[in-house]
Structure formats: structure tokens, C-alpha cells
Amino acid sequence: MDDWRSLDQQYLMSTYKRLPIAIAKGEGNYLYDVEGKAYLDLFTGLAVNVLGHSHPAIVSALREQGEKFLHISNVFLNPPAIRLAQRLVEHSIKGKVFFGNSGAEATEAAIKLIHKWTVREANGRSGVVVLKNSFHGRTLGALRLTRQAHVYQDYPSPAFPVFEIEAQDVDELVAVFERERPAAVLMEPILGSGGIITLSESYLQEVERLCRENGTLFCIDEIQTGMGRTGKLFAYQHAGIAPDLILFAKGVGGGLPLGGVIAGERLMDLFGPGDHGTTFAPSPLSAALGNAVLDVILEPTFMEQSNQTAAYLRERLSRLVEDNPACFAEIRGKGMMLGLQMKLAAEQVSRIQGELLAAGILVDVTQKTIVRLLPPLTLTPVEADRFAEALAEITAKLS
Fold first, then answer.
1. To 10 degrees, what angle do helices 346-358 and 381-398 make?
2. pTM of the entire structure?
3. How far apart are CA 398 and CA 8, in angstroms?
4. How far apart are the first and last CA of the chain?
5. Omega before 282 cis (within 30°)?
6. What one-character DSSP code corresponds to residue 199?
7. DSSP structural state of residue 187
8. Is 368 in contact with 346 (CB distance < 8 Å)?
9. Would the pLDDT of 375 be above 70?
């Protein structure tokens, strides 16, 4: 383990603070380090591995497509990608898909589409409304929309206007509409990196109404919340709304890089040849794995079972919050995307993460004091119990 840590520090740039384990393999809902220790994975590669590790459907698709071809470029028709795009549209909004390799690339495509829409409409609209503490990526265009100072720092910034508002504050959005003429509103249904802040269904419905009333595009960032993470294919679907643009990534590629946008009818024909592109996306292999992911999560019985386990996990954690008010403030989120807001100092929360790691359980921490849970949709009640019991034991010592 120490050798891997030393080599990592010698040859890789330190853009991430890593946990002190080196992974050898993944199986089911567990990761195994190079020394053979098993870890219950409630991290899932930051919401990527929605089916856990080495799921049979994923492995089968990997082998089948791997024996055919891995890369062909966008010059040729790509059957796995066409099928995946069709299914994403059929289960979201009427429109067309642009594929990229990541969530940040999805945001960059969104910025271009919004700009081209304003040029075509010649309506004088400009800029994007985003929520405080939101996260939309780290590339320079996406960084302009990310509202976390420690992330965007002092890098060069594109010049298009950005209007920052508080989540859940309708009056502030109305004020922006009255004061400016924004081209688009972009928001995550649940602010993930921002602290697992769940936007209410009524708020999302009101945002949609205001966008329609003002002739503004309504865009939803489902990069972390999509692919069944919150109990539906996309989180916006809980509110019964229809956005103009959906950003997706993370879980869609079955563990391989894949992302993109679903552009609704107002935007779907704006890109022409040469307007945007990428060498690798859509990877036929990633698209094949994406279809395997959909094969599994679109099965009603699968999502029903996953939602039952998610409700059970939340109920266990709610009891923990009630029983230990000295440590826990509240539980946030929806489905298999939960955040435990702690009443502890950042170093104590980091200690909790370390003690869970020692107990063989992987969790994330965001905003320094929120234990973020992004379990696989295949989590079992027994595994939920294991986590809840371990967390109860660790926090009992602190309180």
C-alpha cells in the first residue's frame, strides 16, 4: 500500500486528496484493496457505478462489444450509440442527443447550444441563471457556471453573463427576470457537491412556469442525479416537468466515460456539422455499456426493489439522527443520494470517514461536514444495516 502511495505522489499530479487504499478489484457492492480487504462501496466512483462492480449485464456487454470494435469515430453510423440515444429520448423528453465523454463536456455542449439559440432567436437574451453553491464542472466554460469559490478560484473566465441566485428562492429568480433578460436557467435537482440540497418539486414547477412565461430556456443538470439515482431515471421526473435541455453523465456509461445532453424541440436542430464534436464520444463500448445499464434499471422490479432499499436506508438513518442530535443535524437527499449534515467540526467528520474506512465502508464527505452517500442501486437491506450500525457506533463515541 505504501509503495502505491509513494508512486502515486511521484508520478501523478496532486489534484485529488486520495484515501489511503489502493484498489485491486471490484465485485458486487464491494471494492477490494491490494491486500485483499473488502470495502462496502457507498461512494460508487462519485455516482458512476449505479449497478455496483462487475455486474453480469455490464460484463456481458463489455465482452460482446469488445469483440466487435472499440472505436470508429463519428464519421460512421454507430449502432450502440444510436440505440442508446433513442432510449434516452423515449424515457425523457422529445429531442435529440449529443454525446460527450464527461459531465463537464455536457456542460460545455449546453453552453454552446444556449448561445446558438440566442443567436438564432435574435431576442437579445444573454447569460445563464445558476444556483449558489452549484457544481457544473471544472473546464473553463463549465467553471463559469460552477458557484464554489474553492473550485473556480482565479482561472480565466469566459465573458458570458452568469446570474447567481439562492436555491428555493422564487422571489430572487423573479427579480433576475425583471432586471435582466437571461437566456437560460440551469440547475441541479439536488445540489450534490453543494451539500445534497434537494430542490422541492413545487420550486422546480415554479421555475419551469417562470421560464415559459419569460421565454427563457429551462435546463436541468442530471449529471449526478440521473440513471435511477433518486428513484426515477432522471430526478426532474419527480416534479412532472419538461425541461428544454438535460445534461447527463456519470452512471450512463456503466463505469466508462460517457456524458452528453438531451436537447428538446427548441434546441435539437441547432448543431450542424462542425458546430461541435469530439474524437472519442460516443464510444461504441461506453454506449454498449449504457444500453446494458438501461436494460437493468428500466426493469420495473429492479427500480421497485432499489427504491424499497433506499427508503429502508433513509429510515435507519433518520432514527440515527433522532437518537443522536448532538452529532447529526439532518438527513438530506432522495433515493440513493443522501447527505448526513453533521453538527461536528470538519476534522471530526473527516475522522468519521477514516473510522468507517477502517471498518470497511467507503463514504464521501462534501462541504466538509456532510457525509455524502451515493450507494449502488443494488444495495441490500443487510448492507444498509451494516453501515447504519457502524456509523452509530462511531458517532456514539464522539457524542
1. 130
2. 0.95
3. 33
4. 33
5. yes
6. P
7. E
8. yes
9. yes
The total number of residues written for the chain in this structure: 399
Looking at the structure, tell me whether residues 327 and 374 fall in a common domain: yes
Render pLDDT for 343-356 as a digit per residue (tens, 0 to 9): 999 999 999 999 99
C-alpha–C-alpha distance, residues 38 and 236, integer Å: 35
Which domain range does residue 44 map to?
Answer: 2-55+300-398
For residues 114 and 287, what is the distance between their CA atoms, to the nearest angstrom?
Answer: 25
Together in a domain, 134 and 50: no
Between 157 and 102, the more confident residue is 102
The distance from CA 195 to its chain's CA centroid, rounded to whole angstroms, is 13
CA 201, CA 300: separation in Å to the nearest integer? 23
pLDDT band of residue 44 (cuts 50, 70, 90) is very high
| C-alpha to C-alpha distance for 309 and 176, rounded to whole angstroms | 41
pLDDT of residue 108: 95
| pLDDT the model gives residue 123 | 82
Separation between Cα atoms, residue 190 and residue 171, nearest integer Å: 20
CATH classification at residue 171: 3.40.640.10
Looking at the structure of the chain, the number of domains it has is 2
Q: Residue 335: what are its φ and ψ, rounded to 5°? A: 60, -130
DSSP 90-122: HTS-SEEEEEESSHHHHHHHHHHHHHHHHHHHT
CA 298 to chain centre: 18
Same domain, 376 and 252: no
Q: Which of 268, 297, 326 is the last residue of a domain?
A: 297
Distance CA 144, CA 137 (A): 9
Quote the CA–CA distance of 136 and 222 in Å, as a whole number. 10
CA distances in angstroms from 77 to 74, 165, 273, 286, 302, listed in the order given: 7, 42, 14, 15, 32
Q: What is the pLDDT of residues 71-104, one digit of tens each?
A: 999 999 999 999 999 999 999 999 999 999 999 9
Buried b (16+ CB within 10 A) or exposed e, 135-155: bbbbbebbbbbbbbeeebeee
pLDDT per residue as tens digits for the range 106-143: 999 999 999 999 998 878 889 999 998 887 877 877 77
From residue 82, alpha-carbon distances to 87, 89, 226, 273, 326 in Å are: 9, 11, 19, 17, 52
CB distance 365 to 371 below 8 Å = yes
What are the φ/ψ torsions at residue 122 (nearest 5 degrees)? 50, 45
**How many C-beta atoms surround the C-beta of residue 124 within 10 A?**
8
